[in-house]
Structures are given as structure tokens and as C-alpha cells.
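REVIEWER CHECKLIST
Item 1: Sequence provided? yes
Item 2: Single chain? yes
Item 3: Sequence as submitted:
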Amino acid sequence: MSDLPHDKSVKNPNDDSQMPLIYPDQASPIEVIDMHTGGEPLRIVTAGYPDIPGKDILAKRRYAKTNLDHLRRFLMFEPRGHYDMYGAVLVEPSLAGADLAVLFIHNEGYSTMCGHAILALGRYAIDYGLVPAVEPITQVNIECPCGMVRAEVEVKDGKTGKVRFASVPSFMFAADLELQLSDGHRFKTDIGYGGAFYAILDAGQFGLEITPTNVGKLTILAEDICAAVNASIALTHPDHNDLAFLYGAILTDGKDAYEDNPTRNICVFAKNQVDRSPTGSGVSARLAIQHAKGLIAPNQTRQFDSIIGSSFEGSVASTTTCGPHQAIIASVTGQAHYSGTARFWHEGGDEVGRGFSVG
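Item 4: Structure as written out by the authors:
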């Protein structure tokens, strides 16, 4: 299936006219720094993006979806990106104490939280002077659509290293739901929130292991699981309706009880996008469910592995509440690395160059 951006105008929410889509040219390109965390890419926009107005981060997210979505496709899709690309657009903070604020972009739209991006942005904020470095730990407060996330960055001899973040309140929304796939196969799933909502379940119910050779099958299965959940469950969040949507499915190896050995999962989110990292918001949601079921105690550190074998460490830092839900503050640690820089522009007459996907 091809996704070619044929539309050359965007709806202005303030009137009935159409505004032309404006792409960066060679004189005014969009500049980016590329990083990855555990193999999952992050394209950080550093210059050239239009201002995004809004009284708060969720209003900015809505504005970007309505008015600037062509630039998301421009940066995320081919020929500059790929189907599993991920990005971060820095915007003006609206929360007191925030060092920076960010909108997350991917192949489908705009997520509310992204742990792998937080781990990368912590380093970036210090390395590029947004936050002064303090040894041995520098705190970076990052405003996300789901709320404030606090990152702690290791700094030694002026160089940044591993990053740990404290999640927004994460909780188990539902446990052991019995649902049915489109082919009639019945399964059980939990639903957890770690800045975004996920269906979280053991892949063993379907006779599948979490291995790279099974990625295709697991991706198709995750899509079917999300369809079953969306058809049966109405999600709500105490803070805002904009947060109440199912972001994806996390299929695990079933090793939820605390032990010294790692547990592996694959996260399929947005439009069948496969996370190469263990998924920071997903680890937060998994920890919330494990804690709610009495499978992990505060301050027990667990290793979470991704589909490619990269790892995050996670623990329950403290307990709290989120509206009617018993919740936790998850602590997630990982390492991000730089990949390179780029300047992107659009040449007149290049329809394909506006951004496309094949899959």
C-alpha cells in the first residue's frame, strides 16, 4: 500500500479557506540531529520548523496535527525517513520548571509519551546547551503531552552517559480481559498506562516466541489485538481525553514475576510500527501491571529486553495515585547514542519528495 501525499492544502481551523502547504526550501531547510536508543531512531528537529502555537502542550499537539502534518510525513517517510522512523519536535514549554517541551511524531501521528526519546533528549539537552551540565547527575525536566517527565543524566568529565527517567503516574487500567481475535481465537490481555495506553499480554497464548524471525507474525497479531481491544473497551484518563486512546500492543515472553533473568517484549505501536527498543513508556506500563498484581516490589530492578536484544532497566521508584487508579512512578534507565546530522529541503516539482511510504 502506498501513502502518497496528494493534498496540497490544509484546513484552517479558523475559517473555511484552504492554506497552501509550505515545505522547507534549500535556503531555509529543516535541520535535524539523529540519535537512537537501543536501536530505536529519534530524529530531533533543531531548526527550520514553523512555530507551533497553543496555550499548553496538548493544544500544540492538536495544532500540529491539523496544520503541520505534511511536515511530519516529510521527515518521517521516505525518501528522508522510513516506515519505522520516529521524531521529536521541540516547542515552547507551558509548564513551570520545564527545561524543554516536545511533540513526538511517527508513522501515524503524534504520541503522548516516548521513553526512548526522553533518554535521548536528556543527553541532547545537556550536550547542546539547553541545560547546564552538573556532575555527576544533571536533571532535565521534559514537558510531554502526557505531563512532566524528569530525566537524570550521568555526567562525567563533561561527557554525558546513561539516562534515567521518572515516569508520569503509570497504572493498570484493566486486568485479564477476555477478548477474541477476528479468527475466533480467544485470549487474555491486561491494559496498562505508562504515558500511553497499551494492551500487554503473553505471546505464548498464540504459540509465538519473541524473536526477530517472528516479527512479521507478531506485528499482524498486534494489529488484530488492538482492533479487538478498541472494539470492546472504552479507555479513559483522569487528566485529559486526549490521552485516552490505545497506542499499541506489547507482546511479552510471559515472564512477569520478578526474577534475576531479563524479560523480553516487542512493542507494535501507531500504524504497525515496530519499536527496536524495549519501549520506555511500555516498560513503565509493564511495571505498573506487575506491581498491581504483586509480581514486583518497589526498588527491585528488572532488565527488559527488546526484539533486537537491546535493554532498559526498570523499577518501581514509588507509589502514587492517578485519579481513581492506584499508580506507580516507574524508573527507566537506558543509553542513547548519536547517529548524525542532516539538512532537509524540498525541491519544486518533486511530488514524491513530499514523503511517501510503501508497506
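Item 5: Key structural point noted by reviewer: Helices lie at 57-67, 69-76, 115-127, 215-232, 280-292.
Item 6: Recommendation: ____
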